[in-house]
């Protein structure tokens, strides 16, 4: 790879300098460097797509490829293990348990339980669930009608 | 607050000091630990109001779900980007993850800010890493246009916000949210006050986005790489919603009349963008317009300022954030294999990727608001509170729900069902990483069914 680059770079720099000098060529290579021009196209058997993947699937080299590291299967496997461990076992399971045991904020669940308990008790005693008047009517002083 | 912020800042040394082989492993593990710590924010220490360890950064039941979502999203972004960033030189990979982490830090400070100017500065600061991610790592030439639209739409909205905040500081003497929530309702009669009201909200309406100023969103979402799309859809749109909810506290009583055109625009936008979704050929564009549609419902819920409206808005923001991000991840898996976002080119995927079809199915069902998922709960609360505000809105929201179901099913049937074209029969299989990514999106949504009170905001 490095040797191929070292062969391409002089040709590229020549081409770059030439175009910088205002030479407008349709093709970026000169006739004399035809041999070098062919080196500008990679001639490796596996053509590379824009992601750098070769046409050969990564599963050929490493059947247990997990999608984390293309070159090193050891790193790929450990990345998978740690991602699963920290993602599922730690964050979702431990985090979920923490959330499950959060205290009853605002005493809402207590209020619901208390209401159900009181309803059951009142129905058993035969009392009304709730009195119609929230305030004691004898304590309400109304202004007499006719005044403003 | 610092127990999350300092580990987030320490992610920078993790990124730059890790050896290239273990870079992604360490950053994934580190960010997942930060996500675990962020769950401690859900333990609200006061019965009502802010949980503040200092004057500058605090959490309350409104900001906590969004903060947890932000912290959960960073490891998902790192997982999603690992494949397509892989061929790049190591330092560029480090730079990419650094941009994601800096975005995370700004977002934590934005959602945790107690002072409106700090919120504003962080709101603006999130633009920079997002712009760099879109314009540097996007795949098509349109990314430059997308970056321009994204930046200038948001800036055009937020400059009036700066002026409005400075005016508010001058008239009230403080911009701390903890104090302003107790301030007297301002007497606002003149036209200048009406412009001030608009100035406070326009930035957030553009960010949400409201239909009418939404043009930046399809461009930005489509041209961004997967991590950019994820963070845009899941969190940055919610910055707009969150900002609106904070500002509305102070904007009464003008909001009673002035909110009308925006509510109507939001509701109309649900139908319009939903209809656009039915005609889309680009997969990511469909998901982007679906985001506009859902956010229109959120905007409507916030603008009517009722408790159920606010609660529904928060629930829908969280649920939509997770599901929209999941859909973008699925779209990216199709894109990485076919190198095209055109839906007709990648159809019948169920035959070749059966497990992924399950994720597509779950994500699309969540998108169309299937009960008992929180997507439905949020939408239902907003729709009922809109109905009690005005019965006529049921026409718009009802048709909007129908269209949402329509395009979600269309997306599923188009991508998964039907005959598999010959050119995609030989696509590489799905990676464990991609399945893990989808599971980590969908499990929190399902778990939230069991404890939705985490997301009910102030009303809990």
From TrEMBL, chain B:
<keyword id="KW-1133">Transmembrane helix</keyword>
<feature type="transmembrane region" description="Helical">
    <location>
        <begin position="286"/>
        <end position="304"/>
    </location>
</feature>
<dbReference type="InterPro" id="IPR010227">
    <property type="entry name" value="NADH_Q_OxRdtase_chainM/4"/>
</dbReference>
<keyword id="KW-0249">Electron transport</keyword>
<dbReference type="GO" id="GO:0003954">
    <property type="term" value="F:NADH dehydrogenase activity"/>
</dbReference>
<dbReference type="InterPro" id="IPR000260">
    <property type="entry name" value="NADH4_N"/>
</dbReference>
<comment type="similarity">
    <text>Belongs to the complex I subunit 4 family.</text>
</comment>
<dbReference type="InterPro" id="IPR001750">
    <property type="entry name" value="ND/Mrp_TM"/>
</dbReference>
<feature type="transmembrane region" description="Helical">
    <location>
        <begin position="93"/>
        <end position="111"/>
    </location>
</feature>
<keyword id="KW-0496">Mitochondrion</keyword>
<dbReference type="GO" id="GO:0008137">
    <property type="term" value="F:NADH dehydrogenase (ubiquinone) activity"/>
</dbReference>
<feature type="transmembrane region" description="Helical">
    <location>
        <begin position="224"/>
        <end position="243"/>
    </location>
</feature>
<keyword id="KW-0812">Transmembrane</keyword>
<feature type="transmembrane region" description="Helical">
    <location>
        <begin position="149"/>
        <end position="168"/>
    </location>
</feature>
<feature type="transmembrane region" description="Helical">
    <location>
        <begin position="117"/>
        <end position="137"/>
    </location>
</feature>
<dbReference type="InterPro" id="IPR003918">
    <property type="entry name" value="NADH_UbQ_OxRdtase"/>
</dbReference>
<feature type="transmembrane region" description="Helical">
    <location>
        <begin position="390"/>
        <end position="413"/>
    </location>
</feature>
<dbReference type="Pfam" id="PF01059">
    <property type="entry name" value="Oxidored_q5_N"/>
</dbReference>
<feature type="domain" description="NADH:quinone oxidoreductase/Mrp antiporter transmembrane">
    <location>
        <begin position="113"/>
        <end position="404"/>
    </location>
</feature>
<dbReference type="GO" id="GO:0015990">
    <property type="term" value="P:electron transport coupled proton transport"/>
</dbReference>
<feature type="transmembrane region" description="Helical">
    <location>
        <begin position="62"/>
        <end position="81"/>
    </location>
</feature>
<feature type="transmembrane region" description="Helical">
    <location>
        <begin position="352"/>
        <end position="370"/>
    </location>
</feature>
<dbReference type="Pfam" id="PF00361">
    <property type="entry name" value="Proton_antipo_M"/>
</dbReference>
<keyword id="KW-0679">Respiratory chain</keyword>
<feature type="transmembrane region" description="Helical">
    <location>
        <begin position="310"/>
        <end position="331"/>
    </location>
</feature>
<dbReference type="GO" id="GO:0031966">
    <property type="term" value="C:mitochondrial membrane"/>
</dbReference>
<feature type="transmembrane region" description="Helical">
    <location>
        <begin position="195"/>
        <end position="217"/>
    </location>
</feature>
<keyword id="KW-0520">NAD</keyword>
<feature type="transmembrane region" description="Helical">
    <location>
        <begin position="21"/>
        <end position="42"/>
    </location>
</feature>
<keyword id="KW-0830">Ubiquinone</keyword>
<keyword id="KW-0813">Transport</keyword>
<protein>
    <recommendedName>
        <fullName>NADH-ubiquinone oxidoreductase chain 4</fullName>
        <ecNumber>7.1.1.2</ecNumber>
    </recommendedName>
</protein>
<dbReference type="GO" id="GO:0048039">
    <property type="term" value="F:ubiquinone binding"/>
</dbReference>
<feature type="transmembrane region" description="Helical">
    <location>
        <begin position="258"/>
        <end position="279"/>
    </location>
</feature>
<feature type="domain" description="NADH:ubiquinone oxidoreductase chain 4 N-terminal">
    <location>
        <begin position="1"/>
        <end position="110"/>
    </location>
</feature>
<comment type="function">
    <text>Core subunit of the mitochondrial membrane respiratory chain NADH dehydrogenase (Complex I) which catalyzes electron transfer from NADH through the respiratory chain, using ubiquinone as an electron acceptor. Essential for the catalytic activity and assembly of complex I.</text>
</comment>
<keyword id="KW-1278">Translocase</keyword>
<dbReference type="GO" id="GO:0042773">
    <property type="term" value="P:ATP synthesis coupled electron transport"/>
</dbReference>
<keyword id="KW-0472">Membrane</keyword>
């Amino acid at each position: 790879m490095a040797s191929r680059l070292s062969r391409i770079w002089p040709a590229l720099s020549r081409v770059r300098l030439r175009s910088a000098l205002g030479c407008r060529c349709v093709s970026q290579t000169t006739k004399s460097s035809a041999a070098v021009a062919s080196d500008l196209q990679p001639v490796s058997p596996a053509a590379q797509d824009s992601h750098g993947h070769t046409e050969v699937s990564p599963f050929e080299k490493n059947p247990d490829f997990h999608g984390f590291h293309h070159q090193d299967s050891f790193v790929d496997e450990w990345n998978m293990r740690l991602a699963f461990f920290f993602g599922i076992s730690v964050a979702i399971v431990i985090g979920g348990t923490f959330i499950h045991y959060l205290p009853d904020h605002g005493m809402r669940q207590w209020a619901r339980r208390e209401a159900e308990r009181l309803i059951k008790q009142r129905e058993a005693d035969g009392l009304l669930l709730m009195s119609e008047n929230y305030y004691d009517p004898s304590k309400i002083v109304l202004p007499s009608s006719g005044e403003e | 607050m610092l127990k999350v912020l300092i580990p987030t800042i320490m992610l920078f040394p993790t990124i730059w000091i890790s050896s290239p082989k273990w870079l992604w492993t360490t950053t994934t593990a580190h960010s997942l630990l930060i996500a675990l710590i962020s769950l401690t924010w859900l333990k609200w220490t006061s019965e009502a109001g802010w949980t503040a360890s200092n004057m500058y950064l605090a959490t309350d039941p409104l900001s906590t779900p969004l903060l947890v979502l932000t912290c959960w999203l960073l490891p998902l972004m790192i997982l999603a980007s690992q494949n397509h960033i892989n061929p790049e030189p190591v330092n560029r990979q480090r730079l990419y993850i650094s941009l994601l982490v800096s975005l995370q830090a700004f977002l934590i400070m934005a959602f945790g800010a107690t002072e409106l100017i700090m919120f504003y500065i962080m709101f603006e600061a999130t633009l920079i890493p997002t712009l760099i991610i879109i314009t540097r790592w996007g795949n098509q030439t349109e990314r430059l246009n997308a970056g321009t639209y994204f930046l200038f739409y948001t800036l055009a909205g937020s400059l009036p916000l700066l002026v409005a905040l400075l005016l508010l500081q001058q008239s009230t003497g403080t911009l701390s949210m903890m104090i302003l929530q107790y301030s007297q309702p301002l007497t606002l009669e003149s036209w200048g006050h009406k412009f001030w009201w608009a100035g406070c909200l326009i930035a957030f309406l553009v960010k949400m986005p409201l239909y009418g100023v939404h043009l930046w969103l399809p461009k930005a979402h489509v041209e961004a790489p997967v991590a950019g799309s994820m963070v845009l859809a899941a969190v940055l749109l919610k910055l707009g919603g969150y900002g609106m909810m904070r500002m509305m506290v102070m904007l009464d009583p003008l909001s009673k009349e002035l909110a009308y055109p925006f509510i109507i625009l939001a509701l109309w936008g649900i139908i319009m963008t939903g209809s656009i979704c039915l005609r889309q050929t680009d997969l990511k564009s469909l998901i982007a317009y679906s985001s506009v549609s859902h956010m229109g419902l959120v905007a409507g819920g916030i603008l009517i300022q009722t408790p159920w409206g606010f609660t529904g808005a928060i629930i829908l923001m969280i649920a939509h954030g997770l599901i929209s991000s999941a859909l973008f991840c699925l779209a990216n898996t199709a894109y990485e294999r076919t190198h095209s976002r055109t839906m007709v080119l990648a159809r019948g995927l169920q035959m070749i990727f059966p497990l992924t079809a399950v994720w597509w199915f779950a994500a699309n069902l969540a998108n169309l608001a299937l009960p008992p998922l929180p997507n439905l709960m949020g939408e239902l609360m907003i729709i009922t509170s809109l109905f009690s505000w005005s019965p006529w809105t049921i026409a718009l929201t009802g048709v909007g729900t129908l269209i949402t179901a329509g395009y979600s099913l269309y997306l599923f049937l188009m991508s998964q069902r039907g005959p598999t074209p010959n050119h995609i029969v030989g696509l590489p299989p799905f990676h464990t990483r991609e399945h893990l990514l989808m599971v980590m999106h969908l499990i929190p949504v399902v778990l939230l069914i069991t404890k939705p009170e985490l997301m009910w905001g102030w009303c809990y």
